[in-house]
Write a structure and sequence with these properties.
Largest sheet: 9 strands, mixed
CATH architecture of the largest domain: 3-Layer(aba) Sandwich
CATH topology of the largest domain: D-Maltodextrin-Binding Protein, domain 2
Mean pLDDT: 87
Number of helices: 9
Low-confidence stretches: none
Number of domains: 3
Order of helices and strands: HHHEEHEHHEEEEHEHEEEH
Helix content: 25-40%
Strand content: 15-25%
CATH class of the largest domain: Alpha Beta
Number of strands: 11
Structural class: alpha/beta
Length: about 300
């Protein structure tokens, strides 16, 4: 019969879709992880994965087992949270591991300093930041909570708005851009069009541009390209203090407002630890957005 440790290994491979990517988090080598999966499949008498050079894809049975194992993992996490709270009192610091999934702009310019402050107050807490150019899948337990730029419309999720934030057109400080016509002969830096994973990240219409001459799926790469004089592009106001070579231009003509949302799996809403962390994270993000935007206002 499969033991919880077997399911833990199975979940890690199911989420990583690879033995080598799952191994570090399990503190095992890839060969050991492979043997554990083979033993589990042998004990069950059924295949959980389809193996290929591209990785490990779940079979139909594997997908059903992943969902049930994830539910068991969540229940175990809640039980441990309750035990920690009962044993340490209401004022105890948070502990254990919490993983946050977020777009790379938030991951690069906001989360490091906010999470550093939370970690300083909670030395027993291990915080992981998962920066992905796509929406984090909480149902697959890729993370404990996610930050998104659109409110999810499906899934067993709880969603709370964190804050609005602002974006403007930015260019090198020596650029002479006074009217929209001045953009006609400027290279546009932005997202790779077919890799925009959220409609709120599609800024081309705001610029009246038809194409992007230098593109990346990473907003941080875009900002670095602008810092090296690659052209003009939309930049988060909260990122500009980290890019002193850039300035906002045409602020009266091009000004965008977007929002950040904190998303959690519904089954986690009774976790006091995650709720405390989510509240502290939201407060920290609101304060940091306000602080950084004030520096460029």
């Amino acid at each position: 019969m499969a033991q919880w440790d077997d399911l833990r290994v199975f979940l890690a491979v199911a989420r990583a879709e690879s033995l080598s990517r799952a191994a570090p988090g399990l503190r095992m080598d890839a060969a050991t992880v492979g043997r554990r999966i083979a033993r589990l499949e042998r004990d069950l008498g059924a295949a959980l994965f389809v193996k290929s050079p591209q990785g490990y894809a779940l079979t139909d049975l594997g997908e059903r087992m992943r969902d049930r194992a994830a539910e068991a993992e969540a229940s175990l996490s809640l039980a441990l949270d309750e035990a920690r709270g009962a044993g340490a009192g209401d004022q105890a610091g948070m502990s254990g591991q919490i993983r946050i999934g977020a777009p790379d702009g938030v991951s690069n310019y906001l989360l490091p300093q906010v999470c550093a402050a939370i970690g300083a107050d909670n030395p027993g807490l291990e915080i992981q930041i998962l920066a992905l150019p796509r929406v984090v899948n909480l149902s697959k337990r890729e993370a404990d909570l996610a930050i998104t730029v659109s409110r999810p419309q499906a899934g067993r999720l709880t969603v709370k708005k964190i804050s609005d934030y602002h974006l403007h057109l930015a260019a090198p400080r020596d650029a002479e851009i006074r009217t929209l016509d001045d953009l006609q002969h400027r290279r546009i830096v932005g997202y790779i069009p077919d890799m925009i994973f959220d409609k709120e990240l599609d800024y081309l219409d705001e610029l009246g541009a038809q194409s992007v001459q230098l593109a990346s799926n990473s907003v941080s790469v875009q900002a670095m390209a602008l810092r090296h004089g690659a052209g003009v592009g939309i930049v988060h106001d909260f990122a500009l203090p980290f890019a002193p070579e850039l300035k906002r231009v045409l602020t009266d003509s091009i000004s965008l407002t977007r929002s950040l949302y904190l998303v959690r799996h519904t089954s986690d809403r009774s976790s006091e630890r995650l709720t405390r962390f989510a509240d502290r994270l939201s407060q920290g993000l609101r304060a940091e957005i306000a602080r950084l935007e004030a520096l460029v206002a």
